[in-house]
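4.2 Preliminary Data

To establish feasibility before requesting continued support, the project team ran the inverse folding procedure on a target of 386 residues. The structure was first converted into the token representation described in Section 3, and no sequence information of any kind was made available to the design step. The complete token record follows.
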């Protein structure tokens, strides 16, 4: 296996899997992605010592959380019988209101989202009776501040963080080692190329294990999930969740790419002594287009896909009416409690609560023309929603 230096070597997959024993089926399916991920991490010669430690911590944490899910599933066999009915997945480019929409919908008492504390420390399975008082809630917030330190304020400007904030379900899929999420933290071209070519059904089997686990003692009427990388793997998603439904907000890609590039630079920053921002801009211009292209191709081939397209501008201008329209599209009940929950979240989280961000495409070596050209098919297809 390639290594950065003797100080930056990564263990092999079997060493880590022996440290976190899994049932045979999980181990066999985790091992290929883990092997490629470790090799790709080792090839990143610019990774600093903090980045090396961070990468190893994330890998071990993913294995530890998957083991916790598997152990509880063996301990409580009823978890495997939990039905997941018509989960709603929020698709779309980053920075187009997907996290905003996820958080707003979480305000509706009918909606169940995975919360950050639950995903970080899933065992024992969360319970409805202690949904607001579980000691893991305070523990998560304390750990978050300690880990992020000075970076916390800048991250909070771009993305909500906290124990009771809805978590992206990419944090489920990283435990399958079939997720593109590691590429947010590190430049991993070999792993990303492998990811694009896989079937990924296994990651959705793991995803469903997580939903069953979290919903066993704390169910909800509707599960609402989100992460951009679902766009790559819609066939696998629908093979595991054949009754899944979807919402896709849309926004001008020239704004999106500048915003997400700035966020990724903040996320990657601690792992590198110096970031090449122009290389980062080019990398993520292509990465986000890859996902959009996959979803567009799938939607063209499956015009009956149950999906509601949404304008980001509408979501910002009138969240209540925009979300009500989505509920109406799927025949969901939009109750007075639904509206109150959305308005309550807006009251508690005004725009700019954590300060404003500053970024331009030029910071990342990009121009409006380059982004528009790369996303020309998307812009033309969804012009009415942009």
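Position-by-position output of the design step:
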């Amino acid at each position: 296996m390639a290594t950065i230096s003797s100080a930056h070597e990564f263990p092999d997959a079997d060493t880590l899997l022996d440290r976190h024993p899994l049932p045979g089926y999980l181990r066999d399916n985790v091992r290929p992605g883990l092997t490629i991920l470790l090799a790709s991490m080792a090839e990143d010669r610019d990774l600093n010592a903090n980045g090396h430690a961070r990468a190893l911590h994330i890998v071990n944490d993913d294995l530890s959380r998957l083991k916790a899910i598997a152990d509880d599933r063996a301990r409580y066999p009823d978890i495997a019988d939990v039905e997941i009915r018509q989960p709603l997945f929020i698709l779309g480019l980053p920075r187009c209101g997907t996290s905003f929409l996820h958080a707003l919908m979480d305000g509706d008492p009918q909606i169940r989202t995975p919360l950050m504390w639950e995903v970080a420390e899933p065992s024992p399975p969360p319970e409805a009776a202690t949904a607001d008082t579980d000691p893991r809630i305070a523990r998560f917030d304390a750990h978050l501040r300690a880990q992020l330190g000075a970076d916390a304020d800048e991250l909070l400007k771009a993305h909500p963080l906290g124990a009771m904030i809805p978590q992206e379900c990419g944090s489920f899929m990283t435990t399958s080692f079939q997720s593109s999420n590691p590429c947010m933290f590190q430049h991993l071209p070999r792993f990303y190329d492998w990811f694009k070519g896989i079937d990924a059904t296994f990651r959705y089997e793991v995803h469903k294990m997580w939903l069953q686990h979290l919903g066993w003692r704390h169910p909800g009427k509707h599960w609402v999930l989100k992460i951009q990388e679902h766009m790559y793997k819609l066939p696998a998603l629908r093979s595991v969740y054949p009754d899944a439904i979807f919402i896709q907000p849309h926004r001008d890609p020239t704004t999106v790419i500048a915003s997400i590039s700035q966020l990724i630079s903040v996320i990657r920053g601690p792992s590198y002594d110096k970031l090449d921002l122009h290389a980062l801009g080019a990398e993520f211009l292509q990465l986000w287009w890859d996902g959009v292209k996959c979803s567009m191709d799938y939607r063209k081939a499956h015009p009956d896909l149950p999906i509601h397209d949404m304008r980001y501008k509408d979501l910002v201008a009138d969240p209540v009416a925009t979300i009500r329209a989505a509920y109406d599209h799927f025949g969901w009940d939009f109750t007075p409690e639904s509206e109150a929950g959305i308005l309550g979240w807006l009251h508690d989280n005004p725009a700019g609560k954590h300060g404003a961000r500053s970024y331009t495409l030029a910071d990342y070596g990009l121009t409006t023309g380059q982004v528009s050209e790369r996303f020309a098919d998307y812009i033309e297809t969804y012009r009415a929603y942009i």
